[in-house]
Specification:
With about 450 residues, the protein is of the alpha+beta class. Helices cover about 30% and strands about 25% of the residues. The model has no long low-confidence stretch (mean pLDDT about 95). The protein binds flavin-adenine dinucleotide. Flavin-adenine dinucleotide (FAD) binds next to α1, α2, β3, β9 and α11.
């Protein structure tokens, strides 16, 4: 098999975790490759049309703070300079989220990686590994030019689905104790909305949905619809759908047939949602401007590491000696027909939990780290820390950890965590512990 390249660090997947991991490793001077199956970065944030950052902020005793900094701040600045970043907006009266323009995110991420001299290989599907005892020897990628081998000293799985870890034989879990995963959704965006007439329609739409269901004119796959304006107020994102199998359980994002049916039914659900939304004042002349490249997958494999972040950790704002970043997003459980949020106590709590380094270090494989929604968490913990903010933090830590392991000629599991914590803080990340909570938004 032809060798595509030999690297010190290879990152699979270009979502928020992969972007931050690749930048952190390259920033530390390591020859780094990021491999992505699409032709652009952003992961679910662009490929599934999410268009909104959650988890950058925390509600700290009733006050909002941006607790994810570091590489995420650089990316946000770049999106903002392109004119593609909204001011943060309040969700459920309790926490901030921040919408962005997909095109600006893609361009800003390209620029960020180029600024740090990360090599990118787009249109390459990771497809397997060749193991050398407990180490990944090469990762195979399928490209238009055929199958290629990528060599690296350390690999970082940011595929969201734990593909690389699974091929390497690391143990993983899927779903809750019954194997039920968070439901996927097909996002879409509408354009041509009259912002004045639409007003604060995100507040009235849920009640209008209930009325429509009671009147028997419409039936919706879930409650908890999110319909909100983007940077340009004539464009709104719609998070409305929920994809289930025949038996009512969530479509499995690891099964190609289920994914295929999910895509088609997701578009049908989007069309039905659109027909309803056109009855909302201000939406009469709207049209679907974007159905994203893929169905939005919230949860698949969670790779087992030295610690599993749990729902109790999120609600109890847990601290860890080996913290490498924080999560300020609440539990957000996409259950059958609904979305259930669970927050740490407001204003009594500090509103964020720390993320232990052990979440990023898999069992059984020595030259692998994982970051993002496939990191080591329980089903409940993942419902919170899967959002973009925590994924950026985990990615930055994983990339920095890989670089430290290489400098110390050791494996990621054995690095001195204090050195990693020091490096992250020096680079502007907020990791909790005794660090002052960053001011501002
Ligand atoms: C419908 C929906 C709405 C959401 N809403 C929000 C929200 O409002 N705010 C928020 O912050 N989060 C939201 N999330 C969650 C968030 O988008 C994801 O959890 C987050 O993007 C996960 O980041 P990640 O980097 O771990 O993985 P992903 O974003 O999934 O990125 C993984 C990347 O790896 C690539 N990849 C995967 N497998 C391979 C392979 N074998 N070979 C090559 N490339 C591969 C993928 O193409 C992708 O680019 C939402 C998710 C969904 C599905």
């Amino acid at each position: 098999m032809p060798v595509y390249g030999e690297y010190e660090v290879a990152v699979l997947g270009g979502g928020p975790a992969g972007i931050a991991a690749a930048v952190a490793a390259a920033r530390a001077g390591r020859r780094t490759l990021l491999i992505e199956r699409y032709g652009f970065l952003g992961g679910m944030g662009t490929a599934a049309g999410v268009t909104n950052f959650c988890g950058l902020h925390a509600n700290v005793h009733g006050e909002m703070h941006r607790v994810v900094q570091g590489i995420a701040s650089d990316l946000l600045d770049r999106i903002d300079r392109l004119g593609g970043l909204n001011a943060p907006h309040l969700i459920l009266g309790k926490i901030f989220a921040q919408a962005y323009d997909t095109a600006a995110y893609k361009i800003a991420a390209d620029d960020l990686l180029a600024a740090h001299k990360v090599d990118i290989l787009f249109h390459a599907l990771g497809a397997g590994v060749v193991m050398d005892a407990r180490r990944i020897g090469v990762m195979m990628v399928e490209t238009k030019a055929g199958r290629r081998a990528v060599r690296a000293d350390i690999f970082i799985d940011c595929s969201g689905d734990g593909d690389l870890a699974a091929w390497a034989g690391a143990p993983f879990e899927v779903g809750d104790s019954n194997g039920h995963m968070l439901y996927p959704s097909m996002m879409f965006r509408l354009n041509g909305i009259d912002p004045e007439r639409a007003g604060e329609a995100w507040k009235t739409i849920p009640a209008l949905m209930e009325q429509a269901e009671a009147a028997g004119t419409h039936k919706f796959p879930r409650k908890g619809a999110i319909v909100r304006p983007q940077k340009s107020q004539i464009e709104w994102r719609v998070n409305f759908t929920q994809l289930a199998r025949q038996d009512g359980s969530a479509v499995n994002g690891l099964d190609p047939d289920e994914l295929t049916r999910g895509e088609i039914e997701g578009r049908q659900q989007a069309m039905q949602a659109f027909e309803f939304l056109r009855t909302v004042p201000g939406f009469e002349k709207s049209y679907i401007v974007d159905l994203p490249p893929q169905l939005g997958i919230r949860e698949t494999r969670r790779v087992l590491g030295g610690y599993r972040l749990s729902g109790e950790d999120v609600l109890g704002c847990a601290s860890f000696d080996d913290s490498i970043g924080v999560n300020g997003w609440p539990m957000e459980q996409h259950v059958a027909g609904d979305v259930v949020f669970k927050f740490p106590p407001i204003p009594e709590s500090r509103g964020f939990n720390e993320l232990p380094y052990r979440m990023l270090v898999p069992e059984g494989v020595d030259n692998l780290l994982m970051a993002g929604r496939c990191a080591s968490m329980t089903h409940e913990g993942q419902s919170a820390a899967r959002v973009s903010g925590a994924c950026f933090a985990m990615g930055e830590a994983a990339g920095s950890a890989a670089a430290l392991a290489l400098s110390g000629n050791t494996i990621p599991r054995d690095i001195a965590v204090e050195k990693l914590q020091q490096a992250l803080q020096e680079q502007g990340a907020f990791i909790g512990r005794d660090q002052k909570v960053p001011e501002g938004l």
